[in-house]
Amino acid sequence: MRQALFLPPLLLAVAALAEVPPPGASTCLGCHSATRAAPAIPSLRGTALPTLRLLNTCDSLLAPDEGISIASVYRAANGLWSDIPGAGGTSPLEAPAAVRVAEARYAEDWFASITADAFA
Q1: 56 CB-side CA count, 13 A
Q2: Strands (DSSP E) found in 5-87
Q3: CA-to-CA separations, 16 to 20, 43, 79, in angstroms, rounded
Q4: Which stretches of the chain drop beneath a pLDDT of 70?
Q5: What pTM, to 2 d.p., does this model score?
Q6: What is the Cβ-side half-sphere exposure of residue 54, based on CA atoms within 13 angstroms?
Q7: Which residues partner with 60 through β-bridges?
Q8: Are strands 53-63 and 80-83 parallel, antiparallel or unpaired?
Q9: How far is CA 34 from CA 55, 72, 101, 110, in A?
């Protein structure tokens, strides 16, 4: 019975995914269906649709206590996701060790989160 409750939103998300392909990367793909299904809620409530933004991050481990990251922000326009100029960025090349340690933890936390989402 519980599965039947999730079937219509799932079909809506799958159909919406076909309309606007995501820019790529697993973080982006993981949240893409949610952003495509999100407009269904306001339309059911009779309220205005939100302006959707999609955040993509890539956290990478270079060593156990050394990480780097890159982030991009996209908006839907003309049936495609496009970069928002000036949004996002990369790790500084000359970042102090504390920043690299923090980014290593972000990478580990991202992996734990995406794994739980995929296999929970």
Answers
A1: 16
A2: 53-63, 66-77, 80-83
A3: 7, 15, 11
A4: 1-39, 50, 120
A5: 0.57
A6: 28
A7: 68
A8: unpaired
A9: 12, 18, 31, 18
